[in-house]
Design brief:
Two copies of one chain form a homodimer. Chain A has ten helices and eleven strands. By secondary structure, chain A is α/β, with parallel strands linked by helices. Chain A has a six-stranded parallel β-sheet, with helices on both faces. In chain A, α1 links the parallel β1 and β2. In chain A, α3 crosses α4. Chains A and B meet through β7, β10, α9, α10 and β11 of A and β7, β10, α9, α10 and β11 of B.
């Protein structure tokens, strides 16, 4: 499958390498293609590096892996036309590190970054997911507790959420994906981050997640 | 043990009955003692109903089980002097139902209700806990997933947190209690509520919790 990834930080690199490793044709979009030269070589040429627009044009599915502060600008640079009608997997979190660690959120409570992105790109089918775990867990959930833990999807388009749920299972082996509802439910998963960062501070490892138990 | 409970809603009644059932001497403080007559009779007289001040005076340990909107006022009515030097277990959440369900939070992000309560009652030893689960799970964690799920404690007083952790285990059978750090970590557990309410909307049962998996 042709997959575009907007953003070349740890999340973009980890997912890009994992998807290229599965045989997908990946273009990672970045502001500074030079910094990813070594990374692209390691994928054996299956992943290319380009601009945000290149990644958006290339992808049948596009993944927003930018940091929250830069997400809307990066997606504008990618271009609404190139993202039109596409499933846009949004992993960003509105983390504000301006006062150090732990971060607060620069959007929360009565809005979410997922909603802002859906509103700014109304012709795209935004599915918020993967934002509640670290990059290593996103790409390899089996590393944590035998995969017995939960991921959430939020979005207005039921077919898009269903497709993404299937992709999360086939791409990375996610076993438990909970559809929380429309894109406003992204408030719930983004506001979980202040608990996540404190669990991270406590556990001192990024490889953890929560399992919903009944 | 002599336990005072400030607040007579579902949480106060559930915990009060459970603790009285274990043989503790419980006073539930309420604005309207009349409404709890039937409830108190069911405890076989082991739980009494009184004013907020009665509950605070009575308790060696005091539990704030009021709804978040009324917590500070109820604790002021209970009286700082009566709460002095005591462990104050804070279960409240800053839920704002003014726009219906799901609620938003009226304090969040760079502050928490737990911090506000600790600041307003500096001579009390506030331990924020139990606020991430429904009343039925608070009092009987074994009902959910064989008790294999997590509760959090947040507070500035290490000895108070340690004591409360022991009480949660002996009172209700909690197996996993994670000390997240000082009272500012209450931001994390209170901001988890927007995810909790959406999980509740999805699962349609209050008897669930999250287990931290590594």
């Amino acid at each position: 499958m042709d997959i575009g990834i907007i953003g070349s930080g740890v999340v973009g690199q980890t997912l890009g390498a994992a998807l290229a490793g599965k045989g997908h044709a990946v273009v990672v979009g970045t502001r500074d293609a030079g910094k990813l030269k070594e990374w692209a070589e390691k994928t054996g040429g299956r992943a290319r590096v380009g601009s945000f627009a290149d990644a958006a044009s290339h992808g049948e599915i596009v993944i927003n892996a930018t940091s929250g502060r830069g997400s809307l600008e990066a997606l504008q640079m990618a271009g609404a036309d190139r993202l039109k009608d596409k499933v846009l997997i949004d992993i960003s979190n509105p983390l504000d590190f301006s006062k150090g660690f732990p971060p607060s959120l620069f959007i929360s409570n009565t809005e979410s970054l997922g909603e802002k992105i859906q509103a700014a790109f109304p012709a795209s089918r935004v599915v918020k997911t993967l934002n509640t775990v670290s990059a290593v867990v996103m790409a390899d959930p089996g590393k944590v507790g035998g995969g017995e833990h939960d991921l959430f999807v939020c979005g207005n388009d039921a077919a898009a959420k269903s497709r993404v749920t299937g992709l999360l299972k086939s791409w990375f082996g996610w076993k438990h994906v909970v559809d929380l509802g429309d894109i406003t439910t992204a408030r719930g998963t983004e506001m979980y981050l202040p608990l996540w960062v404190r669990l991270y501070g406590k556990l001192n490892i990024p490889a953890f997640n929560i399992h919903v138990v009944t």
